[in-house]
Amino acid sequence: MPKITTSFSNSLIFWYLQNKRDLPWRNEIQPYRIWLSEIILQQTRVAQGLPYYSRFIKAFPTIFDLANATEEQVLKLWQGLGYYSRARNLHITAKEIAFQRDGKFPETYKDLLTLKGVGDYTASAIASICFNEPTAVVDGNVYRVLSRIFGIETAINSGKGIKEFKLLAQELIDRDRPGTFNQAIMEFGARFCVPQNPKCTECIFANQCEALRQRKVNMLPVKIRKQKIKERHFNYLVMISEEEQATLLKQRKDKGIWQNLYEFPLIETASEVSWNEINDSEAFKNFSEVNKIEEVILYNEKPVIHKLSHQHLYTKFWVIKSSAQIEKPVPISELRKYPVPVLIENFISEFSPFQN
């Protein structure tokens, strides 16, 4: 491994100050805004996260505004970002800071780690940017930059790799400008040392990059193979009561994907099935006992494939017309007020009876 010198942090910070993007949380040291931006940007690209950040700041300008919101309001605003546990943890932490800490964030990395939904990366970002504590951030961008420049082949998602990269980042950090250094290395990875086709010929570290010297740029960082993708088959029962101009939504209460979001009544099957198979299922018999079904129409012949990190959902929407009075009906005119998974939102947006 090349010798670590202060020239690394100086070069990186110099590049950053000349090339950084103008983002609303940059040049900002208010913990609430830094925390909010970091939670939104976990596993989310800046281009996707930016409008969500703007909407949250407009709806909840202070930590007290966010704390006083309902969970449904938070989930609705978060809709489409995915990994909804982030939104639930965001709300829990907002209430803790507002109501138990008088609106004040912890000021050290160690104490920040006690907050719900705040891990090593987020605690390091807030501590360094807001409180000038020299604790290094390590995210996907940082792994990529360090593994390539220093030629590290330890898997980034192994226990050994997590420790090794954290120690290296901590050695490299500019102790006088930790917040600037952390933002610089993340920016460099996001815009220059990118996963595919990095700008190696223009790179400020080209002369010391081990991956470039050994022609291993596309091989680094090393990551242990992900767990097998699970396939699930969803059959949504979309109730339509023309007389009531209403439909039926259920809230997902079980832990797992989309907890506390709303969806149409769901029958999950082991594989793709026909209507006859659904009709014969125990779950549908229970459903049909309370709903007078007049007509069933399959909305999509080919399942909609919705890809999540560790599972792929194969989804069919069965439109059910009923003359029975729906228990706890949701007026079609109010359908868009409910927080729903993006899979459901897309269906609502294109299904003509829901357009009014």
Automatic annotation (TrEMBL):
One of the Pfam families matching this protein, by short name: HHH
One MF term in the entry's GO annotations: metal ion binding
Class of enzymatic activity (EC top level): hydrolase
Keywords linked to the UniProt accession: 4Fe-4S, DNA damage, DNA repair, Glycosidase, Hydrolase, Iron, Iron-sulfur, Metal-binding
4Fe-4S listed as a keyword: yes
HhH-GPD domain segment(s): 40-191
Record-listed E.C. numbers: 3.2.2.31
Cofactor: [4Fe-4S] cluster
GO BP terms in the entry: base-excision repair; mismatch repair
Cofactor binding annotation: Binds 1 [4Fe-4S] cluster.
Keyword DNA repair in annotation: yes
Biological function: Adenine glycosylase active on G-A mispairs. MutY also corrects error-prone DNA synthesis past GO lesions which are due to the oxidatively damaged form of guanine: 7,8-dihydro-8-oxoguanine (8-oxo-dGTP).
NCBIfam families cross-referenced by the UniProt entry: mutY (TIGR01084)
Family: Belongs to the Nth/MutY family.
Name listed for the protein in its UniProt record: Adenine DNA glycosylase
Species whose genome carries this gene: Pukyongia salina
Gene (UniProt): mutY
